[in-house]
Amino acid sequence: MSPFHKRVDGVALVTGAGSPGIGRATSVALSCAGISTLYITDINEKGLEDTKSIIGSLNLPSPPTIHAIPGDISSPDFIAALFSKISTLDYAVNCAGVLGQDKPTAEIGLEEFDWLNSINYRGLWMCVKEELKLMLKNDVKPYQGFTLSEGEARVRGQRGSIVNIASQLAIVGKTQAAIYTASKAAVMSLTRSDAIDYSKPPNCIRLNSICPGVIATPMTTTNPGEVSERLRDAINIAPMERMGLPSEIADTAVWLCSGESSFVTGSGVVVDGGYVIN
């Protein structure tokens, strides 16, 4: 299959797109999959420009128009400013998140708790709220892939698709990570409940989450000596015994955005090399 196989069409938003991790990989993957307009946001302004340059260097046959909008998704003022610039939206992948420090609950201060949740949960929720408002204005687009009839294409249609990045730790616990795991469990639970409210006709908006395992991103590899020790057990527990790649999460996100996953909603797709089964 060509890397430029068209699987999505229209307008997409990716948060957390300024770091060389899941957000950037997802932005690239959506561009390769045929998106026409791409909004990317991150607190890292230079990183957004780097993401934009990478996409521009791919020489895609139909490159997307890219709008890079730097800002902090934990800020309601920024959220209002960001969505005032987006008039229509077909897909959203909410990747922005932080890891926090390894500490048990009794050693966590309120300030750290609020900071982590303001990004991982509250910030994501503010984005989802605005994304839903935009998608509800769309017409239902019939599925553009292979079907046996026009009626089947209509049944598989959608107004939009939202993908939230959770974590394998939304499903299982981890020592000294209670507030992080709780924030990701909240993302997964939010996704499930929103899917009940918005997937049914006439809304036809699908919402899903991805639960990545240990992925090779700046959050996990900035300080190789310290981080490899911190994550070695998690990597070894997974049957595949390796870190995942951002592109592996990005491919899953594109699938969940596309009509190829038209009967999938409210799911937490685990992409973790088998960690949670062990």
TrEMBL record:
It comes from the Eukaryota. The lineage of its organism: Eukaryota, Fungi, Dikarya, Ascomycota, Pezizomycotina. This is 2-(R)-hydroxypropyl-CoM dehydrogenase. Keywords: Oxidoreductase. PANTHER family: DEHYDROGENASES, SHORT CHAIN (PTHR24321), SHORT-CHAIN DEHYDROGENASE_REDUCTASE FAMILY, PUTATIVE (AFU_ORTHOLOGUE AFUA_5G14340)-RELATED (PTHR24321:SF12). The keyword Oxidoreductase applies. InterPro entries: NAD(P)-bd_dom_sf (IPR036291), SDR_fam (IPR002347). The keyword Oxidoreductase applies. GO terms for molecular function: oxidoreductase activity. Belongs to the short-chain dehydrogenases/reductases (SDR) family. Pfam families: adh_short_C2.
